[in-house]
C-alpha cells in the first residue's frame, strides 16, 4: 500500500508492460474495476456509516469521555474538564481547543462528552 498513486499504478500494471497500448489500457481498466468492486463490497458489509478504523477510534474516545466533567457555557458551547487537557467545545462550529475535532472531522473525547 502506498499513498503515491503513480507508484501504486506502476506496481499494479508491471505484468502488462509488454502489451500494446490498447492491451495496457484494457488491463488498467480491469484492475481499477476490481479495486472499486472490492472496496464497494467491503463497504456494503459495514453496519455503521464509519469505517472500522473510525468506529474503533470513536469507541476509544468515548471511553475517555465518560470521566470528563462538562460545564455549559451557551446552548452549544461547553467547557470540558478532563484533568489533563481541558477543552472548549463548540458543537455548531465543530471545533475544540484540543484541535482534534477540527483536524480529524471526527468528534474528539471532549466533544463526545458534550454530546453524551
What does this structure look like?
- This protein is of the alpha+beta class and 116 residues long.
- The protein has 2 domains: 5-44; 52-115, no CATH class.
- The chain has helices spanning 5-12, 21-44, 52-65, 100-104, 109-115; strands spanning 69-72, 77-81, 87-90, 95-96.
- Strands 1-2-3-4 form a 4-stranded antiparallel β-sheet.
- The longest helix is centred in the N-terminal third of the chain and has 24 residues, at 21-44.
- The model has no long low-confidence stretch (mean pLDDT 86).
Q: How far is it from the N-terminal to the C-terminal residue, by CA?
A: 37 Å
Radius of gyration computed on alpha carbons = 22 Å
**What is the residue-averaged pLDDT?**
86
Q: How big a fraction of the residues is strand?
A: 5-15%
- Give the helix proportion (percent range): 40-55%
Q: How would you write the strand order of the largest sheet?
A: 1-2-3-4
Structural class: alpha+beta
Along the chain, the helix and strand elements come as: HHHEEEEHH
Please count the helical segments: 5
For the record, the count of structural domains works out to: 2
User: Biggest sheet, in brief?
Assistant: 4 strands, antiparallel
Molecular shape: elongated
How many beta strands in the DSSP annotation? Answer: 4
Low-confidence stretches: none
